[in-house]
């Protein structure tokens, strides 16, 4: 039996932690083969055959991930029984197939590079800005309500001037916009 866990991750440590968690969840399984791809250009790629014949598990799993154009994801295929009877070619097909089947039913997320911004403004303007941001597909990350409102947004770099103009229009120039780092966020 071949079972695949396909999970989004942001770092190599997170991928390795997930692999360890799957291993702990299924301690009686014979193998926990894995592959992961990380980074916007998929530059970090790792695979592990976990005791299967060399090249029959991790590499085909990695190929399934990269062929699908995925990144920031880890696949762990857990095998309880059935590998010896398959032979090397059968193992390769089974491991790649397990990942391909998981990909087929997964709902991938698209990550978009966005500028993180905080806008401090009054309550009335905050409601308008939040509504406009959602209509434009900007990420509304959270809000801090105190004497005024601090809206944290994720905006595509090319749309920063549009945000500035909108904020100026809604607040008559009274809002304070603080630019943060660039980060990859899930597409709205």
Summarize this entry quickly.
By secondary structure, this protein is α+β, with helices and mostly antiparallel strands.
Radius of gyration (CA) equals 22 Å
- Give helix and strand order, one letter per element, not per position: EHEEHEHEHEEHE
Our measurement of the CA-to-CA distance between the termini, rounded to an integer number of angstroms, reads 37 Å
Number of helices: 5
DSSP strand count: 8
Descriptors for this entry?
single chain; 188 residues; 37% helix; elongated
What can you see in these coordinates?
- This protein is of the alpha+beta class and about 190 residues long.
- The protein is built from five helices and eight strands, in the order βαββαβαβαββαβ.
- It has helices at about 10-25, 60-65, 85-105, 125-135, 160-170, and strands at about 1-10, 30-40, 45-50, 75-80, 110-120, 140-145, 150-155, 175-185.
- Strands 1-4-2-3 form a four-stranded antiparallel β-sheet, sandwiched between helices.
- The longest helix has 19 residues, at about 85-105.
- It starts with a strand and ends with a strand.
